[in-house]
């Protein structure tokens, strides 16, 4: 799928980007180029130490910001595939710095789209979040706007052979700023701060997130929002899995935070199909394909009327013991209780 192609990853020095690079190098020995596009020169330097140029000549490093359309166009010259992972992601940071979040997450998305159209890119997959579903915070609202931009981009491609799609998933296990590394760092203090005892979240590993992007690249028609079928966990179970001896301190929900997350609302379900391993929300406005054509292409079925996908009403749950095994596998191989 990616052999003899040039792949650009915006935000390529983040948790997802690093896992995606590793996966491409393991699976596609003949990938032409992998362009890591990000603002952080130190993180790019660190990746270069892991993948020295004499052993990995296919890697390229572009310093740039998705807010800069001209730089995006330069970076996309000759690119076949774009994975758009760059974003301002911290909910409370976005609440305090709304304009900066809008410029990166919305204006940046539009710049990626225009650069892809300008340079003849073939496939574009953008990363989204469960917070974009019925958003109550600015971060989620900007990602919803971004999702709409990428879905609608298929309607302005004209005669160009290009497909834009989105993948949306929940909390990535062990990613920077997520709850598991936070609790592990707090364990030695003997107190774990919990926002709310009833809080739930969806759970996905970094590799499963990467695999989902690969699936989207291989199967998308354009305009779909792909959503994985994944388990939920309770925040209290995470705390008990990591540090059962610690005192729990309830500190209250942070600005813009939800008690439970959603990925498909009952209204979304009117345009949602079941692909087996994943769901896909189809574009509400499409001049490219009909709903029947999407269903036929994906060999899918429509979800039942009134279906919704919520971390609280989910039918699949992580257990405390299961979470401990996942932490060893995906976060810290030396973890013990």
Structure description:
By secondary structure, the chain is an alpha/beta fold. It has a single domain, classed as NAD(P)-binding Rossmann-like Domain (Rossmann fold). The protein is about 35% helix and about 20% strand. The protein is built from 11 helices and 17 strands. The strands form 4 sheets. A 10-stranded mixed sheet has the order 3-2-1-4-5-6-10-15-14-16, sandwiched between helices. Strands 7-9-11 form a 3-stranded mixed sheet. Helix 5 packs parallel to helix 6 (about 140-155). It is globular and about 60 Å long.
* Tally of helical segments: 11
Q: Give the helix proportion (percent range).
A: 25-40%
Order of helices and strands: EHEHEHEHHEHEEHEEHEEHEEEEHEEH
CATH topology name: Rossmann fold
Instruction: Indicate the radius of gyration in whole angstroms.
Output: 20 Å
Number of domains: 1
- Please identify, by name, the CATH architecture: 3-Layer(aba) Sandwich
CATH class: Alpha Beta
* N- to C-terminal distance: 42 Å
- Note the main sheet: 10 strands, mixed
User: What best-fitting shape do the alpha-carbon axes yield?
Assistant: globular
Strand tally, please? 17
Q: Extract low-pLDDT stretches.
A: none
């Amino acid at each position: 799928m990616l052999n003899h192609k040039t792949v650009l990853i915006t935000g390529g020095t983040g948790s997802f980007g690093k896992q995606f690079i590793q996966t491409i190098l393991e699976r596609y020995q003949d990938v032409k180029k992998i362009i890591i596009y990000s603002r952080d020169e130190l993180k790019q330097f660190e990746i270069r130490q892991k993948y020295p140029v004499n052993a990995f000549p296919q890697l390229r490093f572009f310093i740039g910001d998705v807010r800069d359309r001209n730089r995006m166009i330069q970076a996309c010259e000759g690119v076949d595939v774009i994975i758009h992972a760059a974003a301002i992601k911290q909910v409370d940071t976005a609440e305090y710095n709304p304009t900066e979040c809008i410029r990166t997450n919305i204006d940046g998305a539009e710049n990626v789209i225009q650069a892809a159209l300008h340079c003849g890119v073939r496939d574009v997959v953008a990363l989204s979040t469960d917070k974009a579903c019925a958003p109550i915070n600015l971060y989620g609202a900007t990602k919803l706007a971004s999702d709409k931009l990428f879905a609608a981009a298929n309607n302005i491609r004209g005669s160009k052979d290009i497909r834009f799609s989105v993948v949306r998933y929940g909390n990535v296990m062990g990613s920077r700023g997520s709850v598991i590394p936070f609790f592990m760092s707090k364990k030695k203090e003997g107190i774990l701060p919990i926002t709310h005892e009833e809080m739930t979240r969806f759970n996905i590993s970094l590799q499963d997130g990467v695999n989902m992007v690969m699936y989207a690249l291989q199967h998308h028609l354009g305009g779909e929002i792909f959503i994985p079928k994944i388990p939920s966990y309770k925040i209290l179970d995470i705390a008990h899995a990591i540090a059962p001896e610690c005192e729990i301190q309830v500190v209250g929900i942070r600005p813009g935070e939800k008690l439970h997350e959603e990925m498909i609302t009952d209204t979304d379900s009117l345009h949602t199909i079941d692909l087996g391993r994943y769901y896909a929300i189809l574009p509400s406005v499409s001049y490219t394909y009909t709903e029947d054509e999407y269903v036929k292409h994906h060999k899918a079925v429509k979800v039942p009327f009134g279906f919704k996908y919520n971390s609280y009403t989910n039918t699949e749950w992580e257990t405390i013991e299961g979470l401990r095994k996942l932490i060893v596998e995906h976060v810290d191989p030396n973890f013990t209780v």
